[in-house]
Amino acid sequence: MFSVGGFDGRDSGSLKAATSARCPSITQRVNGPGSGFPRTLTAIEQVIQRFFIDFTKGILMAFNSFFHHGSGIVMTKGIQVVVAAVAMLFAFGGQLQADVVIATFLSTADNSQVGNPYVDNVSFGDTFKIVVTMDNGGSSLVNQTWVQLDVQSVTFEFNNGAHTTVFGPSFDAFIGGFVTDGAGLLISIPEFESANASVISTNSAQTPSAFFVNTFNDLYQTDFGGYSVGLPDASQVLVASNWTIAPAAAVPEPSTIAVFGIGLCAFVVNVARRRRNAKQQGAMV
Fold first, then answer.
1. Amino acid 139: pLDDT
2. Cα angle, residue 113 at apex, residues 170 and 117 outer, rounded to 5°
């Protein structure tokens, strides 16, 4: 008998038992002993978990029916389970990262008011970009507010990426929040800073040390203030119209999995049909 992990394709109970024994659920892995992060699954995580369970169940049912000449009803049921799982993933696919948004500020580098030397790979007039990645648990840009606890990272990018640093959400001060109106446009920008910033990544040869999104014109500093980047006018960073907000880049769409699953099922059905036709022709001879 063809089986995977104790599942023989004839009933869902054996799949459930095999899955529980050999492949702990996401909840078990997250909340398991020693995990240090006890929590419940988010809705999206539950959808992904349900998809993989149902998708695997359907594939195994179809394959078992094919390899062991099972009834067409079992194969059809397996294909239906796969298609339903894919449809469910598509229904929620747009929400996989819909909660995560990025607020972006664009300007040009100008240290004329600062007097400090520029950080490495940056000079006067180079592109100046700030990207704040946030998630407040919502799924819309309309009438939303993102506060300090919703911030995931703050990125400073200069000279089209020649100097880029990603900071973690560690702040000395965070006043206000990112607020959108009924059209999903930003109407308020918070003031926030970190004088001893936590660096996630950087391509700079210097040591990124601080950032200030306020009227202090050394907005970005390396080597503890030895080098910096400012703006022509620091106050422009607090003007909401100078910022844009949009959903973060989506994760890979479920289309790849969908095409694979549906194609696999179509292959199984086609081969099964050929075998049945060949068997019928042999019987007639």
1. 86
2. 70
Name beta bridge partners: 211: 194, 220
Q: Taking the CA atoms of the chain, what radius of gyration do you get in angstroms? A: 27
User: What's the token pair of residue 192?
Assistant: 């926030």
- Cβ-based burial of 45 (10 A; exposed 0-12, middle 13-18, buried ≥19): middle
Domain ranges of the chain: 12-96+253-284, 100-247
Residue found by looking up tokens 């029916």 in the block: 65
Record the tokens describing residue 33, joined without a space. Answer: 């002993």
- Spatial distance between the Cα atoms of 225 and 208, rounded to a whole number of angstroms: 9
Q: How is residue 171 written in tokens?
A: 């702040």
pLDDT at 4: 39
Q: How do strand 178-180 and strand 145-146 relate by DSSP bridges?
A: antiparallel
The DSSP letter of residue 7 is: B
192 residue type, one letter: F
Per-residue pLDDT at 269: 62
Q: Residue 177 CA to chain centroid, in angstroms?
A: 22
The CA distance from 160 to 139, in Å, is 30
Given CA atoms 219, 128, 229, 210 in this order, what sign does their dihedral have? positive
pLDDT mean values, one per 10 residues, the chain (285 residues): 42 44 41 44 61 71 64 64 64 56 97 92 98 93 96 97 97 97 96 95 97 92 95 95 88 53 62 65 61
Q: Name which of 188, 175, 168 is nearest 148 in CA terms.
A: 175
Beta strands per DSSP E along the chain: 100-108, 127-135, 145-146, 151-158, 163-167, 173-175, 178-180, 186-188, 191-194, 199-202, 208-213, 220-222, 227-229, 243-247
- pLDDT computed for residue 88 by the predictor: 60
